[in-house]
Design goal:
By secondary structure, the chain is an all-alpha fold. The chain has a domain of 172 residues: MetI-like (MetI-like fold, Orthogonal Bundle), CATH 1.10.3720.10. Helix content is 76%, strand content 0%. The chain contains 15 helices and no strands. The longest helix is centred in the first third of the chain and has 36 residues. The chain starts with a helix and ends with a helix.
């Protein structure tokens, strides 16, 4: 009977995680719909205001006819219930209609154009930040009395409260204005900006993209690696070094490098993997302010353009997809945690 119960435990755990993920996704999507619908203005109303300001409209009757035409043209007419059903249909079919930012280009096309830039920039920046921050945190936590450890902790305490976009402005001033070794912004300056059959052009294109991404990446890597990633690894290491098995290992005369590799890295990195997964799940939101500062052609910059004109279709698409990706990432993390951490599995 006990063996049968233990055999059913993984299935029960899986069903619970599926139900929790489904509930989170349902609540998140409904919350997004409510927030977007509670917005005081729509893209149509903003365009009507602009038309009034430049003198195109002068009479209320003209504005009403134009409002009705635009609502029909952009697919925004109908009652609230129809819009709610349409939102679910668009999510499952990945057809979010035309974008008002680049009409009549479909929203899905704009997202697919911007997505590689954001994934390339953020995935690399987050992983490098996680790796550097975790390694430095474990080193500093295990050797807290050394001067280098105190220096890293001091730098982390200074950099952690500073918003990353201010750090980006400093990098722009230093390495794009004062010492112009990096471009001011953009994602690529090679023509044509895509791969061709010419090997030399493809090599130049890749190097050019990396050159443009260097400053945005550094503005994210330096504050993040010496920020939360470092502090969380440092705090976890300080707890681990007081445990009996680490103290006993030191009394046995094992080298500190071996202790960090065999006893600290494995245990501390398990908690850090959770942070890495949660950070990675936020990629679809883009690094909004960083991409605006560097005019980087990713999702963050696209969201900024959509907010300026309240592009409902584009904003809804990015928010819904972000909600789906975050929920999926948490679900996968819940399933992998018992696999990578025996303590959770046996508990």
């Amino acid at each position: 009977m006990g063996d049968a119960y233990e055999g059913m435990a993984p299935l029960k755990f899986f069903v619970q995680r599926v139900l929790a993920a489904g509930l989170n996704l349902f609540l998140g999507i409904n919350l997004i719909f409510i927030i977007l619908r509670l917005a005081p203005l729509s893209s149509v109303e903003l365009r009507l205001q602009q038309a009034y300001q430049v003198g195109i409209l002068r009479y209320p009757e003209e504005a009403e006819r134009l409002r009705s035409s635009w609502l029909s043209f952009y697919g925004l007419e109908g009652d609230l219930w129809l819009h709610y059903i349409e939102m679910w249909r668009r999510l499952f079919t990945f057809d979010f209609g035309p974008s008002l930012v680049s009409f009549p280009t479909p929203v899905s096309v704009l997202i697919l154009r911007a997505l590689p830039w954001t994934i390339g920039l953020l995935s690399l920046s987050i992983f490098v930040s996680w790796l550097i921050g975790t390694l430095m945190g474990i080193f500093s936590g295990s050797m807290s009395s050394r001067g280098l450890s105190k220096l890293l902790l001091g730098l982390s305490s200074v950099l952690y409260p500073i918003p990353y976009y201010l750090f980006g402005l400093v990098l722009i001033f230093l390495f794009a204005y004062l010492v112009p070794i990096f471009p001011l912004g953009g994602g690529v300056s090679v023509v044509p900006p895509h791969l061709t059959g010419d090997l030399l052009h493809n090599l130049a294109l890749i190097l050019n993209i990396l050159h443009h991404a260097s400053l945005p990446a550094l503005s994210l890597i330096i504050p993040s690696s010496l920020g939360w990633f470092f502090l969380s690894a440092y705090s976890a290491t300080r707890v681990k070094v007081t445990e009996d098995h680490v103290i006993f290992t030191r009394l046995m005369g094992v080298r500190e490098s071996e202790i960090r590799r065999r006893h600290l890295w494995g245990e501390v990195s398990l908690a850090q993997i959770t942070l890495l997964t949660l950070y990675m799940s936020q990629i679809l939101g883009g690094a909004l302010i960083t991409e605006i500062l560097f005019a980087y052609p990713g999702l963050g910059y696209l969201i900024y353009r959509a907010i300026a004109v309240f592009d409902y279709n584009l904003l809804a698409a990015v928010a819904l997809l972000s909600c789906f990706v975050v929920t999926l990432s948490v679900f996968i993390l819940d399933l992998l945690t018992p696999v990578i951490d025996p303590r959770v599995r046996h508990s």
